[in-house]
Amino acid sequence: MTQYGTRVRYSGDARIWLATGLLAVAGGTALAVFIVIVIISRGSHARAPRLVSGVIGAMAPPIIFGIPCELIVTPRNHPVIDPGLYRLLLSGGLLAIEITTLLLLRLPPMARLTQPASPQLTGQLAVSSVPGQVRPRRRLLAGAVCSAAVMALVTAGCSPAGRPASTTAKTPSPSWLCQPGQAADPCDSSLAVSAVTADGTVRPATWPSSAQASKFACFYVYPTWSLAKTANTSLAVTQVLAYDAMEQGAPLSQVCDVWAPVYRSQTFPSVLKGLKGDEQIMNSTFTVAYDSVLPAWQWFLAHTGGKPIILVGDSQGAAVLIHLISAQIDHQPSVLRRLLAAILVGGNLQVPSGKLAGATFTSVPLCTSATEIGCAIAFSSYPSQPPPDSLFGRPGQGTSLQSGQTAKTGQQVACVNPAAVSGGVADLGPYLPTVVATALGLKERVRTPWVTYPQLYSATCKQGGGATWLQVTSLAGTSHTRPVVNEDLIVDGAGGPAWGYHGYEYDLTLGNLLHDVADEEAAWESSH
């Protein structure tokens, strides 16, 4: 099914069997309660009061079980209320139903109407023998039986099998590509960097950073990386995957603790088939990818000590996070309160035309200032207006289909300029691995693993012809020409005007994104 433009998947045979079990136990308990009440009240000369009392008592179990069904089973993949409110509704509702049931059994209304109260009852609650009156001790026994049934239902409904998976502390730890304190962590690699100026001078440089980095936790989802002919990758960590984590995840350590789950990402061949119109391949392979990230996210929430969260994803990683935010965060206040920012590069996040939220997300708007928290920075970059068949920048096509964003009318692709969050034109802060810069034509001798090119590009958000994009403009042209990127990717079958700068946009904006996060962290610290 669809929810706010993305697929919200209520899947799994376990959920079906759990719901079936709940209904079966509720029905069986209702029948048992009815029989118990009728038998206990057999001393009555009137059959009608006995049957009515039995029916009233039997109504409680289905009502009681309706609460676990609605509030436990349903929210497992799509929480819709705050956990505190959830507990209040669950416990309060069960308590009210139990008290009502006990009162009904203590004084059955039909028995009260058909038989006058006996004087013997006054001060002799336990010894009444008036015909037509159910003995109080038997009523209390029936109440105790119902109380036990209520507790059994609460226990069943609130067991780990029925509880939202994100709240359990016993979930096994997923496989992490990057994790604070992990040995051989690719996100903890060297970040030594040199700057190459417009005149060709090479000098030491630094990264944008935050003094509060350890107080914040990044959940980073890497992009498509495998050329394997399989539909999805395995969970093995290869050298290529570790390099991708080093290129994109390691710089994040300047502003946060970096957590990056290993997940069964879509391979390039399956993504290309999906982009060419194979909807079945696109949906099935993306579902596998998303379903392998979800447990890691739930574990991350439970084991990061309540730290503020930064979500970071590029390409497929951004698509996964778009779906995750829509399905798991957008309607859960307790998680929204922890969200510092979502950085979604090349994922085609969609918003209503001219608005900041309301399509894919309703509670996570686009950022409008460098100090705004709880918002999203999203963009796709091109050197000029994207062509009609572009894979990014246009709603309801291309990479929008990965996360189930199919709407075209009345929506646009989000664009927040990471170099000028509040709008306008500003210089980009590109940081590239030296091996990438060398492949692009780096001529200077750089001895560090990273290189940055100050004042080489500028960027601004543009809109036209049904597209919205981050327009990246090269400022090269000095006597000493520095290498610039182009629209050609190094992957077979991917590249050209329809792709824009998709293969480089994360690196081109990396310095700005780190600045943005550092500013948001300072705003968080001042407001908390």
Would you mind describing this structure in some detail?
This protein has 528 residues and is of the alpha/beta class. Helix content is 38%, strand content 14%. The strands form 5 sheets. Strands 3-7-6-8-9-11 form a 6-stranded mixed beta sheet, with helices on both faces. A 4-stranded mixed beta sheet has the order 5-4-16-15. Strand 1 and strand 2 (6-7) form a beta hairpin. Helix 2 (47-73) packs parallel to helix 5 and helix 7 crosses helix 8. Residues 1-15, 70-83, 108-134 and 154-169 have low confidence and may be disordered.
Q: What brief labels describe this structure?
A:
4-stranded mixed β-sheet; 528 residues; single chain; disordered N terminus; Rossmann fold; 2 domains; 6-stranded mixed β-sheet; alpha/beta; 12 helices; elongated
On the 0 to 100 scale, the average pLDDT is: 81
N-C termini distance: 38 Å
Going across the biggest sheet, name each strand in turn. Answer: 3-7-6-8-9-11
CATH top level label of the largest domain: Alpha Beta
Question: Could you tell me the strand content as a percent range?
Answer: 5-15%
Name the poorly predicted regions: 1-15, 70-83, 108-134, 154-169
Helical coverage, percent range: 25-40%
The biggest beta sheet reads: 6 strands, mixed
Number of domains: 2
